[in-house]
Amino acid sequence: MVNQLPAETTTFIGREAELGKTISLLESSRLVTVAGPGGVGKSRLAMRAARQVSANYADGVVLAKLDAINDPDLVTTALAANLRDKNLLLLLDSCEHVAQACGRLARTLLDAAPGVRILATSQWPLSQPGERVLRIGPLTVPEVRNLTEARDLDAVKLFADRAVAAWPGFVINEDNWARVVRLCRLLDGLPLAVELAAAWLRVLPLHEILSKADDRFRLLVRRNGFGPPRHRSLLATVRRSYELCSTPDRLLWARLSVFRGTFDPAAAESICDGTEEALSRLVDRSIVVTDTERYWMLDTLREYGREQLQASSMDSELSLRHSAYFMRPAEHAEANRDEDQLTKREQQVATLAAQGLTNREMAIRLGIAQRTAETHVNRILHKLNLRSRIDLAGWQQAVD
Questions:
Q1: Stated pTM of the model
Q2: What pLDDT is recorded for position 340?
Q3: Alpha-carbon distance 37 to 115, whole Å?
Q4: Cβ–Cβ under 8 Å, residues 87 and 62
């Protein structure tokens, strides 16, 4: 049995649910694609899954790292002829820039080699019959109240693990847990960004890393130069995603950065001239996220789009369009306070949350459970089509 997977040099952290799902999909489908934005950990997850199922294949696992391949036809030529009689798992890593060639290869192999299964990683699906797609996002960084809860977060575990390599003896404690959580949230819980930030502990104290994190593209650079070029800096990762988009999709990405929170297709079309078809392409490419009703971008991707928009001649015009679009409902904001929209309790919670109170503080103030306060906040954000408490504060200011 051949196993071409490289040895793991760092700890695999979190992703238990996604790992189980990947393995389950491989049992029922011969083509599985792990999709998500750059730096989210697709390759690491796929390699861990491949390692765990390698014993199921008589000929083991064959890894094809595609990030350095520029000629798409090399993918099909180099692999298709040699795998027809094999019983193996083919791991196609980093398919996005040769996605069409990978799609052709998958179609050829699945037709001609019944013993081959394919696990691919890509920022978007290969769009082949029978393909099952597992989309993964960043590590979640919800509100936490104390050190114990902070230590349970996968993003914090990742930061702590990588921090030890930069600063032996580093631990998450009562003095720093809040800063670590804040840093992980500021970086969207994106594993690559969290790892790059942790590496700076070799030369900077945590509070300075946090203060510089607003300029994430300048800060988050792999100082030792290790790793594939696309992962040596956060900027390189995001720029690669941008360059792989068509010109119209790049333009829409930049224009959508005008939204600080969530938006819907109507707002995208009115303000950014973005059709639903164009919006769906950015969803497919893991640039825009949706829950089927609202859309948004990770702050990291939005920030890059914002830089592109500011460099264009459309920045001022888009800002004016955005203001005009949202001022119209603000003129009738009093209607948003109807009992049909927010209950009396929800109005109370909305007011306190907009003032910056935490779930715990609201629970004490209103005499309710902390989990109940959190549920109210989530329901309010959904009802008002808002993404965050920052948006809620803006809404409250508009209606007062």
A1: 0.81
A2: 47
A3: 30
A4: no
